[in-house]
Design a protein that fits this description.
mainly alpha, 17 helices
Amino acid sequence: MPVPLERTPLAQVPLDPAPLLKGHWYDALAAILDTELRAGHVTSARQQAFRLAVAAKRVLDLDAEDYWPISREFPQRRWAEELGAACFPLEPRSPQRGALASLVPLYRLMLEVLDLRALRHEPLQVVVTAHLIGEYLPQLAWESTLGHAGDPLRMDEYVGERWGTDDRSCPHNSALRTTAKRSLNAANGDQAGFTAYLDRFHSRLGSALAMCAMNHETIAAGERPDVAGTCAAPCRWAVRGELADRRDLDARVRLALLYRDSPVVALRHHAPVGHFFGVPSTSEISEAWLRTWTRVSAPWPDGSNPLAAGGGGAPEPGEALPGMSALVSAVAGRTVGPGTLIRDIGDDIAQALAE
């Protein structure tokens, strides 16, 4: 007769966090620590490790609404300030503008998340993150010109004339007109209106600005890839400054739009929502990325592809999608590589558990 196996309660098994931390399984580690704490194995160090593991999971989930509260929960941590800079403001006129002031901290975080999702062998999350990287790329391109990342508190410092109006000579469609108009007053209303703007309109702002950058007074037809609508009769604000600077902005915006319309981003539109089929495999993602890279790195008729110039940054070693950081850097006009924020939280977890 078989002898029944004796089962040791999970809470009595000595915890070796090293494999979970090495694999960046902060969610699993948080669940184990929660079980131990509920079983009465309470120490201040384990409580702290649990709170940090939950924070790491929330950051990895790329829910930017959580970032400011997390940064305030751990204000003395070396990564707290960078996390706060990656979030969108929770209030319309908050002095902390976060990702409305600059998208660079958020992009550093997204590039890190992309690599960690690949290390965790989560192809669907790799696709989701690659899609999110494309959401704000045109705004990232405009950041160096605007001096911010499309902050509604400051948009009227730069744009004007037909921007956000019903003037039919503006090539913006109705959705982009609405977005442009909301971008001028979203921070002047109440909390609900501001939140609605961020949820429904802010990601479209890049498309509206992109059309203004790609105007016929800056680039002639046929000089560069056709990627989206252009403006034949631009407003004066859209053509201020030196022609070389405007041509540079046009190039970086076009590169951003080439990526947004690429095979790897298209995978997100075929990803499953509420059913069991169609999860992209690693090989499908790799093939889509190769086709994407061919698309974004191809020479342009006037030789101005920012990615070909290589001035923004080189591919990071060990990237999940090799060249992604170089692409983001080329769009930004500055070097933007993957950060270490989540890994830094992991180091703090390890230190807490070692106490």
